[in-house]
Amino acid sequence: MEKKRIVVKIGSSSLTNNKGEIDQHKIADHIAALATIKDAGHEVILVSSGAVAAGFRKLGYSSRPVTIKGKQAAAAVGQSVLIQAYSDGFAQFQVTPAQILLTRSDFSDKKRYKNATATLSELMERSILPIINENDTVSVEELTFGDNDMLSALVSGLVHADQLIILTDVNGLYTANPLTNADAVRINTIEEVTDEMLGFADGTGSKVGTGGMQSKLFAAKHAMSAGVDVFIGTGEGSNKLLEISNDNGDGTYFTRNEKSIPRHKQWVAFTQVMGKLFIDEGAVQALQHGGKSLLPAGIYAFEGQFEKGDVVEVYDRHTCIGRGEILYSSNELEQAMGKRTSELADLPIEVIHRNQWVKI
């Protein structure tokens, strides 16, 4: 059996009952499946939703709160409930979990990105099962981020996973909503997530979660570009994850892109963009077809405030052609853009080195 590094994402609807509370039978089923696939020799990372769903009842809400402060308070209470449930359940399988709370900014800062990678690598080397959730208590935008769907894709790229398994309450992607359309047909295998698929996917989530099928497709597209195979579907019993990893799952399989982004460039590809550069036709040809670095002479305008080491997008007129890690601050670029190499004095020759360039 080939050993895999697998990220498993479990959404709120797969963890809670119809009252929005943690369902002990559901979580026990997931724990048994996670322990089984780990015992089979695979490395496993869990991305788990459910903190808000686990906490809102304890705050006196009759249903999931809709305000930011309500969600944040519920997450603060619910996170401890959730991790305790996992810890108690894994104890019977002699599995030690570790709690890691992340925000989108952890993927935007290069140093924090590397620190997260190092921490997760150390945990897996010591046979610990990391449980990752979004730090909802201090995040605002992330509470509408897609029920951790995109977080699981980002984590998959971060740890260079072989497979991302997104467990949900629907057994895969259909040509229409199977709950309302009797003619809906499941798509078993997908090699490319198209705009048409994103269009017919339902963008809404359940009452206890925020992510619908559309957010899962965006996550799958992201993970595939990072070289990760993806499964979206459902399952029951302690062998469900093993069955999914062996291509026998009840859902849709997404095949990783052959031209996936190299691992050392994934941070550039998926981090937050701090500015835009606008370049002339000669620079476009050098970047796109010549395998060259971007020089100051080819830049005629820029937008944004950025520092050396930030990531910026590069535009050919109105079209974004890629992004890269910039070697100039915006103040330095103001002085250098349009100048030839001989006029740069002590500034770097390249604005973006070809090794830190990602073509879109």
What's the layout of helices and strands?
Layout (H helix, E strand, L loop, with lengths): L4 E6 L13 H16 L3 E6 L2 H5 L12 H24 L5 E6 L7 H16 L3 E6 L14 H10 L4 E5 L5 E2 L11 E2 L1 E2 L4 H6 L12 H13 L3 E6 L5 H6 L4 E5 L11 H5 L4 E5 L1 H8 L10 E5 L7 E6 L2 E7 L4 H7 L20 E3 L1
Parallel strand pairs: 1-2, 1-5, 2-4, 3-4, 5-9, 8-10, 11-13
Antiparallel strand pairs: 6-7, 9-10, 11-12, 13-14, 14-15
What would you note in describing this structure?
The protein has 360 residues and is of the alpha/beta class. It has two domains: 5-262, Acetylglutamate kinase-like (Carbamate kinase, 3-Layer(aba) Sandwich), CATH 3.40.1160.10; 273-359, Archaeosine Trna-guanine Transglycosylase, Chain: A, domain 4, CATH 2.30.130. It is 32% helix and 20% strand. The strands form three sheets. The chain has an eight-stranded mixed beta sheet, sandwiched between helices. β1 (5-10), α1 (24-39) and β2 (43-48) form a beta-alpha-beta unit. α1 packs across α3 (68-91) and α5 (149-158) packs parallel to α7. The longest helix has 24 residues, at 68-91. It starts with a strand and ends with a strand. Residues 204-211 have low confidence and may be disordered.
